[in-house]
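Quick one, T. Sequence first:
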Amino acid sequence: MDERKDYWQKLEALMRPAWGWVVANPVKAIAAYVALVSLFFVVFPAVDLWASGLFYSPDQGFSAQGDPFLRRFRHLGPHLVKIIAVVCVLVLLAKLLLPGRRPLVPLRTPVFLLTTLILGPGILVNMVLKNNWGRPRPVMVDVFGGDMPYQPVWLPTNWCDTNCSFVSGEASAGMWLIGAALIAPLAWRWAILAFLLPLGLLLSLNRIAFGGHFLSDTLISWGLTLLVIVLVHRFLFVQAPRWLHDTHLDEWLTRKGRILQVIINRNGARLVARLRRFLGMFSTH
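Structure tokens:
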């Protein structure tokens, strides 16, 4: 018992400096993670095929595709992303349309969520990688009943035209949801993580079970999305210029909102006048 306790104490002593470095250098740590995971799957591509093979049988293929519950569960992540994105847009619109009111939440919160969603899952994952790298999905690969060869990570090919396997959009969306915990109130942060972390893992695993993505697609997608989240968080919250502070964003949207109100009132008065003239043409004396 004492030997086991000594072992864990020594392991903790070794891990504490490493964890401290990760906390102090998150961008370098995540970049190193992406590089190491990529190198691992370049050197050991059979791990990709093994992981997908766990959910494949020659008789039934990727049988998870036919499970109604798993098919519905797949859409839970995108629905949550859409709901959060719509709420963020509504928060900004509410401030713009009601400039005299205090914002519903600090304005950097919706700006952070929308910016990371656009840059991460939107541009980097779906527009740049999935549409240009051409990696066939597991269901397309000859090992799993398809007619295309397995392609390694980070190798651009012409085997797939658009919406391809590298990297996983669902894994990116799941990591984006988890990233929302960065800006949550500290009292709620662990509760949010306790819900979103397993959800993100299960959504990503679900896509592997469907034959939609390789394990490498998922792990690399997590790292790339988290890298975007950390960089944007640093720009907006850690090293933010003054014009991006909540008070300045509030003042800027207030000014724009009042200008918008003047435009709406002016055009509204003109519209009412034109409507009255139009109706006057049909009035009887």
